[in-house]
Design goal:
The complex is a heterotrimer.
Chain A: H1 3-12, H2 14-36, H3 75-111, H4 113-128, H5 131-142, H6 146-155, H7 159-172, H8 176-184, H9 188-196, H10 201-224, H11 236-241, H12 258-286
Chain B: E1 7-18, E2 21-33, E3 38-42, H1 49-56, E4 65-74, E5 77-78, H2 84-90, E6 95-98, H3 102-105, H4 112-123, H5 128-141, H6 147-150, H7 160-172, E7 178-182, H8 190-207, E8 210-215, H9 218-224, E9 227-232, E10 235-241, H10 242-247, H11 252-260, H12 299-303, E11 309-312, E12 315-317, H13 322-332
Parallel strand pairs in B: 3-8, 3-9, 6-7, 7-8
Antiparallel strand pairs in B: 1-2, 1-4, 4-5, 9-10, 10-12, 11-12
Chain C: E1 6-21, E2 26-42, E3 46-50, H1 57-64, E4 72-77, E5 80-81, H2 87-93, E6 97-100, H3 114-124, H4 131-144, H5 161-173, E7 179-183, H6 191-208, E8 211-216, H7 219-225, E9 228-233, E10 236-242, H8 243-248, H9 253-261, E11 311-312, E12 318-319, H10 322-326
Parallel strand pairs in C: 3-8, 3-9, 6-7, 7-8
Antiparallel strand pairs in C: 1-2, 1-4, 4-5, 9-10, 10-12, 11-12
Helix pairs in contact in C: 3-4, 3-5, 4-5, 5-6
Classes of the chains: A mainly alpha, B alpha/beta, C alpha/beta.
């Protein structure tokens, strides 16, 4: 199947269309952030402006349409600029870890032998470590900050792609067209790029789009736990962590501070959902058994 | 022939309604099978031979498939009119089927004995113990060595040829009147194929059932058939006694096929290939479906579709230009 | 062309595949796919290599091309032992020997256009100085296999099986090889298309002075296209002879039964059929002595103990059978 056909089918499929629209919506917000929520200090646009120093969140008003969080951080501003953070976290983590996974998986699968054994045992060791705990420990050691969160999540996030890629390569390298290229005298580099990777990449694309959402959630979790973004940084996870003390509501009103949880939570959920929808749709479109 | 017809297929049409369009897989096919005879159905991929057999078994997946037209009279009863429950009584009991790939038609988690017994228990009123004995008897009849031991083995423990024997044992366990064999030897090696063909011929004599043999292999057809229907693009194009068909083909397609295959029994300098490609079922040509590849084709062939007509006694051909074919044969001095 | 000039000579070729088990991937046994075969192919001829599935004929073909590394033995081609070549020399040598595959669907990269598939060997070996020259060459080669230049921009899935096989032939021809190993090139094609490809291969052989190793299980096809025929059984050659010799006077009981098992497309043709008992044994643990003895209708005591020698019984009619030694 050709790329064009895949794109056409993505648009024809209702579920993936919803996913696409959502992602485009988030993309527009991310790109338009400086206009939607103009920063007061253009040199530090990711720092969420504060409307005072009061402790208690303030409900939505005409000035702060999503209200303010604990410490009077403007939720609207945090959500808008946090979209950029979400995309950045997702693309960087998924991009680099997928790249590592593809590289490792391709080499292990293509060359096989002892190299494969060693690399895959290392992969097994990494997989045996609980992901979230490993990420927390590593971030703590490296020090707080989004960059370190990303390093930690990349370090422990490449193994699935590596395994998937390896199994793909193992099956494709027995294909006759790969053997034919070998018989023509093609070098390893040419075989890997022109014949192997081009024919194995689709499942990796599906996996990557599924991982986009989950990586953003994990990064948010770390921010929620206070080892992610620095205080005041526009990040959805942090926006939720501001709500930690207010989730149970105020006296006599359990949903008094709903906006502190629902708005950033909703943003994360929709963001994740959109990538998963696209991933699912990709899988349906590309799965040869379903055609 | 004045004998009672066992199965009489009249103008059968089975279409598949897919996203890309309607596939007229079988489009107006008629033939009959008499008790105890073997009808060979030969054709290339996409000619509709397998769909024909699945239509008789009413195993066409619907949607997208549907029997659009025609009747399938089995002992006078129209199978297309039966509901699934009535059909189930006929399948496996009166008509049974064996397939190309015996591994995929056997369930890997049950022993071969269990699977044969299941077929027996569904259709016959016997105890489990009797069914097991019958299963062992069937395995003996299909030439499986040590049947008492084999009956408790799993399909993966058997070779391809043995599995096909098990499939045959299963399909014959209820004494069917018609056995449909869809490319039963295509996946097998030539020495194993010879074993299975011989087995089928001897079982036919022993059980007296009729066989509908579907294959692309002109050699296999010649070995086992009494009569042959040649299919091309969803139609029967030639229909005759096996000796007449091979000795004196009356359709340009059959004639072309005979000279395009290498023959083990005679030497040919060069094969005479039929030009062009096997037509795509989504897009069959207008008129005679063979016109795009036929050396005798005229404008008439491109517009009007010829019907199957009796050109000699018991020898049917669907061609406007049987006379031209005869001329060509006379010119080349061969039949 | 000098008569009887050997283009390819195979000596005692073996290819074993290890069977690994357990956590430490210990080798517990070997599949003896090709077990000590010796034969040669003369310049300009077609040698048919026949046998049933699992007999090792495809493995033999791929080992000769060093697509699989030989376990032991020599492969002499144009004065060089291919087994000794290093990677660079081997790549250079690939221009001389090519392969055509069975499956016209699996053997073409679905994401490349026909121009890129056929042009790939030209790119690899720098056979064209410019993009224009390359595309002209591709169009030329496509023309020789009967495909017009209008097909160059298309992808494999837009073609029928026969056309794809032509593309596979064109790719092999692009480097102008002297030997082509054809691994079941027509067995996946429809009956009416097989003849087209066989005829094409015969025409190309004449036009380009090609030598073929034609691997197939279909004896009628092999008989039609070959000059000499080699018969394999369970990793061993059992008989090699001139085509006419082999089909008229098969010496090995396996060849005899193989020939008699072919269904003949003529209902009036009567043969005496030798139906072999049982199945082909496993190549992991092949029978002792002559590998064919458990199925052989003429097996003697010696057959299960001593392996028969593969030797010339006159006029280059080679066979390996104890029955012949007594004569």
């Amino acid at each position: 199947m050709e790329w064009q056909e895949v794109v056409i089918r993505l648009f024809k499929n209702k579920i993936s269309l919803i996913g696409l629209i959502l992602i485009i919506f988030f993309g527009v917000i991310a790109i338009g952030a400086p206009w939607i929520a103009p920063p007061s200090d253009p040199s530090e646009p990711y720092m969420v402006p504060r409307a005072g120093w009061g402790f208690e969140p303030q409900p939505p008003s005409s000035e702060h349409i999503f209200g303010t969080a604990e410490g009077q951080y403007d939720i609207f501003y945090g959500i808008i600029w946090g979209t950029r953070t979400a995309f950045r976290i997702g693309f960087i983590i998924v991009g680099i870890s997928s790249f590592i996974g593809i590289l490792v998986g391709t080499l292990a699968g293509y060359y096989g032998g002892w190299f494969d054994e060693v690399v895959m045992r290392i992969t097994d060791i990494f997989m045996a470590i609980p992901f979230l705990i490993a990420a927390i420990v590593m971030t703590t050691i490296l020090g707080q900050g989004l960059r370190n969160v990303m390093i930690a999540l990349i370090t422990f996030g490449w193994m699935n792609s590596a395994r998937l890629m390896r199994s793909q390569v193992l099956s494709i390298k027995e294909e006759e067209f790969v053997i034919a290229a070998d018989a023509l005298g093609a070098g390893d580099f040419r075989i890997i790029f022109k014949h192997v990777i081009l024919n194995t990449i689709f499942p990796l694309v599906i996996e990557a789009s599924m991982r986009m959402g989950s990586m953003v959630i994990t990064a948010s979790t770390l921010s929620f736990l206070g080892i992610g973004a620095p205080e005041g940084y526009a990040d959805w996870g942090q926006m939720i962590s501001f709500a930690r003390n207010w989730i149970l509501g105020g006296e006599g009103n359990a949903i008094k501070y709903w906006f502190t949880v629902v708005i950033p939570g909703g943003a994360i959920t929709l963001f994740c959902l959109s990538w998963n929808l696209i991933g699912d749709a990709f899988r349906d479109i590309l799965d040869p058994k379903l055609q | 022939m004045s004998k009672e017809k066992l199965i009489d297929v009249n103008d059968l049409a089975t279409y598949f309604h897919t996203e890309e369009g309607t596939v007229k897989a079988v489009d107006g096919v008629s033939f009959e099978i008499y008790p105890g005879e073997t009808l060979g159905i030969v054709g290339e991929s996409g000619c509709g031979k397998s769909v024909t057999s699945l239509s008789i078994m009413r195993l066409i997946e619907s949607p997208p498939g549907k029997i659009e037209n025609g009747e399938i009279l089995f002992n006078g009863k129209d199978l297309t009119k039966l509901n699934q429950k009535q059909m189930r009584k006929i399948r496996g009991n009166d008509i049974s089927m064996i397939f190309q790939e015996p591994m995929t038609s056997l369930n890997p988690v049950y022993t071969v004995g269990d699977q044969i017994m299941e077929a027996i228990l569904i259709h016959k009123d016997v105890s489990k113990k009797e069914a097991r004995q019958e299963a062992i008897d069937m395995l003996t009849k299909v030439g499986i060595p040590l049947p008492e031991q084999r009956v408790d083995e799993y399909p993966h423990q058997l070779s391809g040829g043995m599995r096909q024997r098990v499939m045959i044992a299963m399909s014959l366990s209820c004494d069917p009147q018609l056995l449909i064999a869809d490319e039963p030897t295509t996946a097998l090696d030539v020495t194993i194929q010879a074993q299975i063909l011989e087995l089928m011929n001897s079982l036919k004599r022993q059980f007296g059932m009729a066989i509908m043999m579907i294959t692309h292999d002109l050699g296999v057809i010649a070995e086992v058939s009494d009569r042959v229907a040649v299919m091309y693009a969803g139609k029967v194009v030639e229909y005759a006694d096996v000796k007449d068909l091979y000795g004196d083909p009356k359709h340009p397609y059959t004639w072309g096929l005979m000279y395009s295959i290498p023959h083990i029994e005679k030497d040919l300098e060069r094969l005479e290939a039929i030009p062009g490609n096997v037509p795509n079922p989504l897009n069959f040509p207008e008129g005679c479906k063979f016109n795009t590849r036929c050396q005798f084709a005229t404008d008439k062939c491109r517009v009007d579709e010829p019907e199957l007509e009796e050109v000699e006694e018991g020898h049917y051909s669907a061609c406007w230009h049987v006379d031209k074919l005869e001329e060509q044969k006379a010119k080349q001095g061969r039949g | 062309m000098a008569e009887d000039e050997k283009l390819l000579e195979i000596k005692n070729l073996k290819k074993y595949f290890p069977v690994k088990e357990g956590v430490f991937r210990r080798t517990v046994a070997h599949v003896k796919a090709v077990d000590d075969i010796t034969f040669h192919i003369k310049k300009g001829e077609t040698l048919g290599l026949v046998g049933e599935s699992g007999c090792g004929k495809s493995t033999a073909g791929r080992t000769i091309l060093r697509l699989l590394e030989a376990t032991a033995g020599e492969i002499w081609f144009e004065g060089k032992n291919l087994v000794d070549l290093d990677k660079k020399e081997l790549r250079e040598m690939r221009k001389e020997m090519q392969i055509i595959f069975q499956d016209p669907y699996a053997s073409l990269n679905p994401r490349m256009t026909v121009a890129d598939i056929v042009g790939e060997p030209i790119d690899i070996h720098n056979l064209a100085s410019s993009k224009k020259e390359r595309n002209e060459k591709v169009a030329d080669i496509l023309d020789t296999v009967g495909l017009g230049p209008e097909y160059m921009k298309r992808y494999p899935h837009e073609f029928s099986g026969g056309q794809r096989q032509r593309i596979g032939v064109a790719r092999a021809l692009a480097v102008d090889p002297s030997l082509i190993i054809a691994d079941e090139p027509v067995s996946a094609l429809d009956v009416s298309i097989q003849a087209q490809v066989i005829n094409l291969m015969q025409d190309l052989q004449k036009d380009f002075d090609l030598t073929y190793l034609f691997i197939a299980h279909d004896l009628s096809v092999v008989k039609h296209i070959s000059d000499r025929v080699a018969v394999m059984y369970l990793g061993k050659l059992v008989e090699v002879a001139d085509k006419k010799e082999l089909f008229d006077d098969p010496k090995h009981p396996y060849t005899q039964s193989l020939l008699s098992a072919i269904p003949v497309a003529d209902p009036t043709y009567e043969t005496e059929r030798i139906i072999l008992e049982g199945d082909v044994p496993s190549p992991v643990d092949p029978p002792s002595g002559c590998r064919f003895h458990p199925r052989c209708p003429y097996a003697m005591d010696i057959c299960s103990e001593v392996e028969p020698e593969f030797k010339d019984y006159g006029d280059e009619h080679f066979a390996a059978c104890h029955l012949l030694e007594d004569e």
